[in-house]
Here is the input.
Amino acid sequence: MSSTTADPAGKPANQQFDDSIALDVGKRLFDAGKDIKNILITGGAGFIASFVVRKLVLLYPEYNIYNFDKLDYCASTNNVKSVADKPNYTFIKGDICVKDMVNFVLHEKKIDTILHFAAQTHVDNSFGNSAEFTLNNVMGTHVLLEAARVNHVKKFIHISTDEVYGEVEHGGSELTEESLLAPTNPYSATKAAAEMLVGAYQKSFGLPTIITRSNNVYGPYQYPEKIIPKFVTLLSENSKVFIHGDGSNTRRFIYGTDVADAIEVILHKGATGETYNIGTSFEISNLELTKMLIRQMGLGAREKELITFVEDRPFNDMRYAIDSTKLEALGWAPKVSFEVGLKRSIEWYKTYSRKWWPNISGALVAHPYKSGAQHEIVLQK
Ligand SMILES: NC(=O)c1ccc[n+]([C@@H]2O[C@H](COP(=O)([O-])OP(=O)(O)OC[C@H]3O[C@@H](n4cnc5c(N)ncnc54)[C@H](O)[C@@H]3O)[C@@H](O)[C@H]2O)c1
Here is the structure.
């Protein structure tokens, strides 16, 4: 096991940033959980999990938080720098696919709770190297589940996505947790496959699992491969943005701190064996979102010139729509309006995009499509 503060490209992460958003962790909502003491958070140097790491470390000093992350291209230890020196925080550089290490950590740190975020997350990449997604998202989850079973973990919260439901037609009703899973791209297929294993470990072995499915998350700390950080970065550098297809596909968005609040609620009040949707009803097409970003960045006069339409993804779900009533019944509600969250995000990316990660250039192209080389390696092993 090794502990590190270096980012993937070897660039030191301990730069000084005046990042006040990192301290926006809200108010503590619960007493310490009876069986919660040592929490392993996988993928904690990534985007969403870093909101959860910061929140739990700062608001729940009696919990020990172990951030287990392999520091892939999209990760940054800057995301968790604000808590790096806290006594209840430990960073462990490791890969969830490596069984011996995962077992060692669970045993050695007496892990009772796992919040499993680590995954390959970019749909575009999954069209190129889909076996990487199977390896990390399915096999990695399987390794973690088995280690959790052997080490008698008391709570395993698996972070999934609304993309597992597949697309919902315009005008189609919101999907509940009981709806069928019908993923349409390799990313969402691996997330759905991982969910099947989670369900099987719960049924066959009684592993106390919970699944969450959220809609598109946005905010600071997201590697600029996803639409909002990518377009803000490009526009702030006076570059054109690329819209897949005609831009009519819609997405619903939820701000990072609202998801962290949801995880806090589910960790303390979620019922074993249940699945919880985490979503908002704020929905916008990719084209409208792009125009909004252009206007908010003071570039409205150049709108036409700044937008380029490019070939669509091999398949691009028209829309997703989930119903979060079940989670709301536990007392959760989103707090950050899209207007406020977007403003914060724009300011943050204008300042930090090029400083936060060692290299983002490869992400700023129309289709950040990774080659299938890894795919062949995985299949031939
Ligand atoms: N971003 C979204 O809009 C969104 C929406 C719904 C659900 N999700 C889910 O939430 C989770 C987190 O998503 P995100 O966007 O924050 O991810 P991200 O891409 O920002 O970060 C993923 C993190 O996982 C780590 N990781 C990947 N493979 C690993 C492995 N084998 N071992 C250890 N660490 C590994 C990476 O280094 C990185 O820090 C994922 O499971 C994703 O499917 C994301």
Remarks:
- The chain is about 35% helix and 15% strand.
- The longest strand covers residues 155-161.
- Residues 20-380 form a domain with the Rossmann fold fold (CATH 3.40.50.720).
- Residues 1-14, 373-381 have pLDDT under 50 and may be disordered.
